[in-house]
Specification:
Distance between the termini: 20 Å
Structural class: mainly beta
Shape: globular
Number of strands: 8
Order of helices and strands: HEEEEHEEEE
Radius of gyration: 15 Å
Strand content: 35-45%
């Protein structure tokens, strides 16, 4: 993963590309999840969710603003790879514990269910600043 450049190995859909172009190449999502500020378009075969900031079905030019990926990493593994996070806290908005990294044009969040140090992080979200 080269998160500072918005790149995740194996994902051929760049952040900020359009939902319409992504659906032309990958088809309709397997399911859609409503999230704060938009939707996650979930693709089971690719093990990924693509985030959109608003109702993508009304405008195919809507940009993809985030990737959502399932993972299984310990806090130690994340910190060894990326260094100390900017924040390690409970998110009321997400209802989970997170590690947060500010990468300039991108934000990186690792999520887990409890504050138990033995629990691994179960998902990661890479979010693009659409203003950049």
């Amino acid at each position: 993963m080269n998160a500072k450049k918005g790149i995740v190995q194996g994902i051929d859909v760049p952040l900020k590309s359009t939902v319409g172009a992504m659906m032309e190449s990958h088809g309709q999502p397997d399911w859609v999840v409503a999230v704060e500020g938009g939707y996650q378009l979930m693709y089971k075969n690719y093990h990924i969710g693509f985030g959109t900031p608003h109702e993508y079905f009304q405008d195919p030019k809507t940009p993809i603003s985030s990737y959502y990926l399932p993972i299984n990493l310990s806090e130690k593994e994340v910190i060894q790879s990326l260094g100390e996070p900017i924040a390690k806290e409970y998110s009321e908005q997400d209802g989970s514990y997170l590690l947060y990294y500010d990468l300039g044009n991108y934000k990186l969040y690792f999520y887990k269910n409890t504050d138990d140090p033995a629990e691994t992080y179960k998902s990661v979200k890479l979010i693009a600043s659409l203003a950049a």
